[in-house]
Amino acid sequence: MKIRVSAVQYELRTIRNFGEFAAQVEHYVKTAQEFGADFVLFPEFFTTQLLSIGDEQGHALPIGALPDFTVMYTALFRKLAADTNMYLIGGTHVLRKNDKLYNVAHLFYPDGRVAEQAKLHITPTEVKEWHMQPGETFDVFETDKGVVSLLTCYDIEFPEIVRMAKAKGADIIFCPSCTDDRHGFHRVRYTCHARTIENQLYVVTTGTVGSLPTVDFMRANFGQAAIISPNDIPFPPRGIVAEGELNQDMIVTGDLDLSLLYQVRESGSVTTWRDRRTDLYPDWK
User: Fold this and answer.
1) Total domains in the fold of the chain
2) Which terminus of the chain faces fewer neighbouring Cβ atoms within 10 Å, N or C?
3) Is 285 a catalytic residue?
4) 44: in domain
5) Whole-angstrom Cα distance, residue 275 to residue 130?
6) Could you say which of 119, 126, 157, 175 is catalytic?
């Protein structure tokens, strides 16, 4: 099976109302539709753009105000997924549950369903500055294009959770991210490559670009989208199906051939998935 994926290098810029946010999102979705994409990936924390709308005094809204936009955010993405017949990974959006904040990735199905996966590993900034809580459950998601997993930014740096995703049947990991400098960006990017080699699956990742000058901790963004494959003969030599230009407002699109994954797992130059030592390190207990 071949699947076409698009990853959005979302440009953060100050906006005045939700309508401007919706128009920007729709622009990217319709562009991906013109390329014939099956899945469209948005970055982590891209909805923080809504905080730049500000209050009556012109001050940016606090992170705790972001859940107030959830109904509008969800309605927007559900409509776009239905109208375009595409699967939309709406980056991440902050939800409030039992008076606690969670950084949650959303998968919008064309039929109106919405799947959620809270970020499992929380960075020090998310904990100290935004008081985020880690998710407590982990799932993979079945689609008519295959089984996928949503692992956000820091999550991809932990090999155990990706191995669990593969053991549960995932062939594609969607990794929305948000990094503010080269160090953070390359931590995510290098570990995305490692996870494709270890588990012989695809990783699609993207990050925020641009700036929100009035929003704390969103003033600097360093991002690039990439569609990453295992490193073996059927795939591109560097394991890069496609990648964007650093820090540019753009969409990256490429094709994933799931049959190649099955081929290399069985008879590749190396067979890392088959050769794992589950007698020494189980996929999970």
Assistant:
1) 1
2) C
3) no
4) yes
5) 41
6) 119
